[in-house]
Amino acid sequence: MHHLSVASLFLFVWLVERSHSASSLQDSMRQLHHSFSISLYQTITQTENGSNLIVSPASVSFSLALLQLGARGNTRAQLEGVLGYSVKGGILKKRFWVLNSSRDMWLQQTCTLFIQSGVQLLDEFTQGAAAWADTSVVRANFSHGEMSGSGEAQADTLWWGQRLQVALVNTVKFRGIWQKQFMFTNTQNLPFVLPDGSTIKVPMMYQAAEVRYGKSPYSITASDQRYVVLELPYLGHSLSLQVVLQSDRKTPLSSLESQLTARQLASWNVGLRRTKMDIFLPRFRMQSKFNLRSVLPSMGISDAFDPTTADFTGISGGLYLSDAFHEVRIEVKEDGTKAAAATGETHPEHN
């Protein structure tokens, strides 16, 4: 029986959809989403200075895709270029964002447009957003923190008091129960290695199980250092959590992160084999919150943030992005995983 102890920091954890059949369009879109996810992750890690980090590319990409509906000219071209696709035509409607929920697994995405009272949006945009993404519209008074109407959204993710006209808030919530749960009685405090080589004691979960496991088939550094992938399925078999870490603890995480590609992500599913293992996994809770205002321009979305070049005339006149806030929370414990992400994009009053 193999032994796997996640006793150092993760490279990252990755929720993957388990699909036994897929069309060529679905395969292409999955590849594009992988490419965007890696680009976003690598760009953020360059500014976070090695701190613990969690990102929800799905929440960010969905918000950017929705903005395409109202973007025009080069602003739209940049959004399409970074995402790799256009939302026109409706063929992509909700395909990659809806999974069947059950008592054991629950995945929900909501999108809400908060609009300053008195501001008029083009009907074509609001109707298109509602049809493409089930977006709800809520009238708000940003200066007083008041809103009316219906729609489920996180009010605390808005930045009341700003001179805003429109705020787009996208939330993703996930709850999954392990197919085989860790027993609480097996959890004990064990050493966990930090990036600087020091150790702390953390609650370490344990189970013996047969899981999908494998080593990367690709070299990721000049010295041929590799990494390992472990897949933990949730009940229902629709989603799994993939845990990725370096096979050699002396290898810095940064050397692995910088070499990730969409091809490698796609290879994980074909390279994993069912293996009996002793699994030690930290129980953890993590939260990240940051402004994508400097991240997205580095990826190629710059016009949207410039009042002189932004073209969102398909939404309303004189709009540009002032900020793009992103907040993610995740908790991994003995019975399963809970995660929530929110991405908020604000359009201020344009003088």
UniProtKB/TrEMBL annotation:
Any one cellular-component term (Gene Ontology)? extracellular space
Q: Which GO terms describe its molecular function?
A: serine-type endopeptidase inhibitor activity
**According to its UniProt record, what is one Pfam family this protein matches?**
Serpin
Q: Domain Serpin, which positions?
A: 38-348
InterPro entries registered for this protein in UniProt: Serpin_dom, Serpin_fam, Serpin_sf, Serpin_sf_1, Serpin_sf_2
**Which SUPFAM superfamilies does the record match to this protein?**
Serpins
| Alphabetical keyword list | Signal
Leader sequence segment: 1-21
Full protein name? Serpin peptidase inhibitor, clade E (nexin, plasminogen activator inhibitor type 1), member 3
Provenance organism: Oryzias latipes (Japanese rice fish)
Provide the taxonomic classification.
Answer: Eukaryota, Metazoa, Chordata, Craniata, Vertebrata
